[in-house]
Amino acid sequence: MDSMVVNHSSGPDHRTPCVIVGAGGHGRVVLDILLSARRYRPVGFLDSNPALHGRRMDGLPILGDLSALSGLAAQGITSAVVAIGDNGTRRGFADEIEAAGFTLINAIHPSANLAHNVSLGRNIVIAAGALVCAHCQIGDSVILNTGSIVDHETMVGTAAHICPGARIAGRVTIEAGAFVGIGATVLQCLRIGYDAVVGGGAVVTRDVEPMTTVVGVPARPIRTAMDPDELTAFMLPRSLQHR
Ligand SMILES: CC(C)(COP(=O)(O)OP(=O)(O)OC[C@H]1O[C@@H](n2cnc3c(N)ncnc32)[C@H](O)[C@@H]1OP(=O)(O)O)[C@@H](O)C(=O)NCCC(=O)NCCS
Fold first, then answer.
1. What was the pLDDT predicted at 66?
2. One domain, residues 89 and 150
3. Which of 215, 223, 224 to mutate to test the pocket of ligand 1 (most atoms within 8 A of CB)?
4. Which member of 37, 66, 171, 230 has the lowest number of beta carbons within 10 Å of its beta carbon?
5. Ligand 1: which atom is nearest the Cα of residue 183?
6. Is 39 inside a domain boundary?
């Protein structure tokens, strides 16, 4: 249940207090989204950079690193959102924060437009002007950035990032950790493999293999996944390799 905080200027404040993890540029965007949406009341930022601790950003204090979570919980602040651009770091922090007993909230800008039957995980950021069409599934820790379009029945996997202005057609699968760069286009029914990178402005016309970087129109790989031996080593426990 939302806690009630007294706001002397305008009566009771029913917004749930929360903390933003990550005091960088994306943190600023997430703060703006939360203030616009008015469902949560950000109390401050956490950041692992000690040089930032004790400073303020956009009017809020930078309270410390993740070790500050227990003190916040003691004050009744148990909601958080991770505002870190790097996909792997965002996912790792989300796991740590949940393990500390916090609820991971979604930051959805009021100007984003979501179909009624979109399914959402947690720790999701949907920025201003994003469009998410019918029957999409948006996984935990996903960023759908400013003005991005995700069309019908598309699945966006855990901790993927769809950058500003990117357009994902219908029935696409974006696997976990994938990054679709600014202004890129992904045609219908394709699969973008896990941890793949689609360069800014690319037009993807074929599936992209996991851990592969593609750029251009049409998109072509400039960096591919590890060679098959390396991939085996990465995927399998050492005891099962080279059998
Ligand atoms: C794709 C990307 C990740 C590659 O970065 P990188 O690994 O540092 O690659 P490099 O800059 O070394 O470029 C390698 C080659 O690819 C080309 N290239 C890089 N990005 C490109 C792009 N988006 N479109 C076309 N060509 C591109 C470079 O010109 C270079 O070509 P060359 O070898 O002929 O000189 C990066 O360029 C990119 O597009 N990032 C997206 C940024 C973004 O969306 N930011 C928004 C954040 S919210």
1. 98
2. no
3. 215
4. 230
5. 44
6. yes
Distance 20 CA to ligand 1 centre (A): 30
Residues 19 and 51 in one domain: yes
The pLDDT of residue 6 is above 60? no
Q: Does residue 120 sit in the same domain as residue 191? A: yes
Q: Is 123 in the pocket of ligand 1 (CB under 6 A)?
A: no
Residue 216: CB within 6 Å of ligand 1? yes
Going from the C-alpha of 227 to that of each of 177, 204, 221, the distances in angstroms are: 20, 23, 14
Specify the ligand 1 atom closest to the Cα of 201. 23
Model confidence pTM above 0.85: yes
213 lines ligand 1 (CB under 6 A): yes
Separation between Cα atoms, residue 226 and residue 215, nearest integer Å:
18
Q: Contact 208/214 with Cβ under 8 angstroms?
A: yes
Which residue's C-alpha comes closest to atom 37 of ligand 1?
Answer: 199
| pLDDT of the residue at 11 | 73
Query: CATH number of the domain that 26 lies in?
Result: 3.40.50.20
Q: Whose CA is nearest to atom 18 of ligand 1?
A: 215
Q: Are residues 121 and 187 in the same domain?
A: yes
pLDDT at 5: 40
Does residue 113 share a domain with residue 86?
A: no
Domain housing 16 = 5-105
Number of domains in the chain: 2
Q: What is the DSSP string of 74-135?
A: HTT--EEEE--SSHHHHHHHHHHHHHTTPEEPPEE-TT-EE-TT-EE-SS-EE-TT-EE-TT
Domain assignment present for 134: yes
Task: Look at residue 90 and tell me if it is in a domain.
Answer: yes
